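Aim 2 progress update. The chain analyzed this quarter is reproduced below.
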Amino acid sequence: MRFRGSIFGRLLEPIDRRRFQTVVDRLDGDAYDKSFKCWDHLVALIYAQLSGHSSLRGLEAGFNANAQHHYHLGTGKLSRSTLSDANARRPVGIFAQTFATLSAMASRRLRSEGNEMVRLIDASPVPLGKVCSWAAWNGRIRGMKLHVVYDPNGDVPNCVEVTPANVNDIEIGRQVSIQAGTTYVFDKGYCHFGWWRKINDSKAFFVTRPKTSIRLRAFKHRAIRKRKGDGFEILADDEVKLVSKGASRLPIPLRRIKVKRQNGGKITLLTNDLARTAVEIATLYKSRWQIELLFRWIKQHLDIRKFLGTNDNAIRLQALAAMIAYLLLRIAARAHCIKMLPLRLAELIRQFLFTRRVLAAINKPPPINPSKPKSPVSPNQLAFSYG
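Predicted C-alpha cells:
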C-alpha cells in the first residue's frame, strides 16, 4: 500500500532539510543540545503554532500523543524542560534564515509577469505586560515590536524583524533593500527625507502620509480626469516642494494628493510617482490595510500573545515560528489550489494536523466504504428453488 504522510508532514515539505542543516552548521546551532537538534526545535514550535498550544505542558502532551508520526517527521519524543532550555539559547538566526528561504520560495512561485511590484511596510507592537520586566517601554506598551515588509499581490511577508518596543519604525525601514521599479507604501512613522531620497535615487517610488509639521507649497496643479475611487474621492492633485529651509530640503519631485474617504475623513498623500493617476495612488495607499489584516490574523489565529518562554530569545523564536507557519500555510494553499479562506484553512489544519489525508481535500468528508458487491451468478451454475 502506498504510504501517505500526515498533513503536518506535507506542510513541512517546502523546508529543504539539507539547506537547513547547512545553516545550522554555520551558526553552530546544535552546540549545546545534542539530543534536541535544531530540526526538532523548529518542528516543535511550528506544531505549537498550527495546533494552538500555548503552554509547554500542553505542547509536550499533544506532540508526544502522536508518537507514531515522529519517525516520518524526523523528530523524537519532546521534553518541555529541553524545549525551554533550547528556547533560551538557540540562535535566532537559524529561524530567521529559514523564514527568508521560504519567503523567497513563495515569491518565486507567486511571481507573474506584468504585475506591478508593491511592498507594504509597517510594524505592530507585541505586548508582554508585567510578565517580562526586562522588556522595553515605549510610552504605550512594554514589550517587543514586529516589523514586516509585505507583498500584497502574493500575500507573502518578505522580511521580518523583531526588535524592542522602543525602536523607531524608520530605523528598521531604512535597512530594507530597495528594488528599482517597486512602490513602497508606508505611514507617517517612516518619515525620513534621506530615506525618501534613497528610494527615488534607486528608481523606485513611495506613497506615504506627510507629518503635519512638514510644510509644502504647490507650484503646479494637475488635471484630475477621474475623481471617484473605491470608497474615496480625489479633492486635489498638486506638484509641491518643501518650504522649510536648510538641509531639510528634498531635491526630488513630490506630489501631494488630497483624498476624501467615504466615511467623511480627509487624508493627504505624498509620493514621488508622477506617472500614475491620483486614483491609482490613493488605491495603493488603501491597500496598506492588508498588512494590518496580516497582523490581526497572526495575532488572532497564530500564537504570539501567549509565549512558551519569558526571555528575549524565546519570544523572538516564537514570533519567527509564527511567520514561518504562516508562509507554510500560504505555500500549501497555492500548491494544492485551495480556494478557501485562510482562516478556514487554518482551522481545518488544526483539527486534522496528524491525519493521513490529501491536503487538497481537507474540507471534504472522508469517503464511506461501500458494502462489498455481490459476485454475479454464473449462468452455468445450478440454482435451487424452494417452493
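The chain has a mean pLDDT of 85. The chain has 13 helices and eleven strands. These observations will guide the mutagenesis experiments scheduled for the next reporting period.
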